[in-house]
């Protein structure tokens, strides 16, 4: 469960990439427009885009001239839902603990083992 | 519940209400004395009988229940996958309170969290409170807020579309 999560979190660990996603949250745009606010070469921006693309956080258009970048929110949802996995983990563990405790107490007590 | 704000809330009350996105609280009353519940939580003999969701089994590699002691285990999922866990005990007050930390690790979780378990005796029963507090993590917090913003935006657009539709009809 954590492999994809780690990839997503690693992609989001960089402030430039977070800024790129924040821009894309407003709507799709070209790489040139994306790069404009950053003091960075186009190849440097492309490198960040590749990381985001590999993490499944952005998708790019097919058109050779105009390859707009779009935000793909699914991995963000996985991160947002991730903590909920722990709730399920514990609800189920505590159910199991409850029946285990019943089992333990149903057993006849061994003599001389009481505290 | 009263809608009126509790102005008398002390700092402890407020601490529980803080950072709801990073915290999970689960309460449960167990039909067993707290000494037994505490033992079930801290004895490697007992843990494999209940620790983990349905269908999981565990292997405990090391479990040193002392402050600073290490607890390493592998959880075996029903799908055949293994999940490695690396923990450190912080506080042990038998049979009342137990605090330990999941340490972030390349093999384990990407973000750490602390687990605080309190065992309160109520007759022969135990009121258990389990709190999980996740470490602050810029990347995670960003993902949650951006996702909420994107979803919020979609809902606004949908509501606007619905509203325009009612105008047009």
Describe the fold and architecture.
The complex is a heterodimer of chains A (115) and B (169). Chain A has 115 residues and is mostly helical. Chain A contains five helices and two strands. The longest helix of chain A is centred in the C-terminal third of the chain and has 33 residues, at 74-106. Chain A is rod-shaped and about 80 Å long. The model of chain A has no long low-confidence stretch (mean pLDDT 87). Chain B is of the alpha+beta class and 169 residues long. Chain B contains three helices and seven strands; from the N terminus they run H-E-H-E-E-E-E-E-E-H. Chain B has helices at 11-17, 34-42, 138-168, and strands spanning 23-30, 57-63, 70-76, 82-93, 97-102, 113-122, 125-134. In chain B, strand 4 and strand 5 form a beta hairpin. The longest helix of chain B is centred in the C-terminal third of the chain and has 31 residues, at 138-168. Chain A binds chain B through residues 1-2, 5-6, 8-13, 18, 21-22, 25, 71, 73, 75-77, 79-80, 82-83, 86-94, 96-105, 115, and chain B through 21-22, 24, 26, 28, 30-32, 35-37, 40, 46, 49-54, 83, 108-111, 113, 128, 130, 132, 134, 137-140, 142-144, 146-151, 153.
Notable traits:
heterodimer, A: 115 residues, mainly alpha, 5 helices, B: 169 residues, alpha+beta, seven-stranded antiparallel beta sheet
Q: Would you kindly provide a brief summary of this structure?
A:
Helices cover 63% and strands 5% of the residues of chain A.
Portion in strands of chain A: 5-15%
What general outline of chain B do the C-alpha atoms trace?
elongated
Strand arrangement in the largest pleated sheet of chain B: 1-7-6-5-4-3-2
Radius of gyration of chain B: 21 Å
Largest protein interface? A-B, 43 and 43 residues
């Amino acid at each position: 469960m954590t492999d994809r999560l780690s990839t997503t979190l690693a992609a989001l660990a960089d402030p430039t990439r977070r800024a790129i996603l924040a821009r894309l949250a407003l709507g799709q745009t070209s790489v040139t427009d994306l790069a404009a606010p950053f003091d960075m070469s186009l190849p440097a921006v492309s490198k960040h885009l590749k990381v985001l693309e590999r993490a499944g956080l952005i998708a790019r258009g097919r058109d050779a001239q105009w390859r707009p970048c779009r935000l793909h929110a699914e991995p963000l949802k996985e991160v947002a839902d991730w903590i909920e996995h722990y709730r399920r983990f514990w609800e189920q563990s505590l159910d199991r603990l409850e029946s285990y405790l019943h089992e333990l107490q149903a057993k006849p007590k061994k003599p001389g083992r009481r505290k | 519940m009263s809608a009126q704000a509790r102005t008398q809330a002390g700092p402890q009350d407020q601490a529980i209400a803080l950072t709801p996105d990073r915290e999970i609280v689960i309460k449960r009353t167990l039909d067993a004395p707290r000494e037994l519940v505490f033992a079930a939580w801290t004895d490697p003999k007992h843990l494999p009988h209940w620790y983990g969701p349905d269908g999981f089994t565990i292997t405990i590699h090391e479990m040193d229940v002392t402050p600073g002691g290490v607890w390493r285990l592998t959880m075996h999922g029903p799908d055949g996958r293994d999940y490695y866990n690396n923990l450190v005990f912080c506080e042990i007050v038998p049979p009342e309170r137990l605090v330990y930390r999941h340490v972030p690790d390349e093999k384990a979780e990407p973000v750490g969290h602390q687990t605080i378990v309190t065992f309160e005796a109520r007759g022969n029963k135990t009121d258990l409170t389990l709190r999980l507090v996740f470490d602050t993590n810029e990347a995670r917090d960003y993902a949650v807020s951006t996702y909420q913003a994107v979803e919020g935006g979609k809902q606004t657009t949908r509501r606007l579309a619905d509203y325009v539709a009612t105008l047009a009809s």
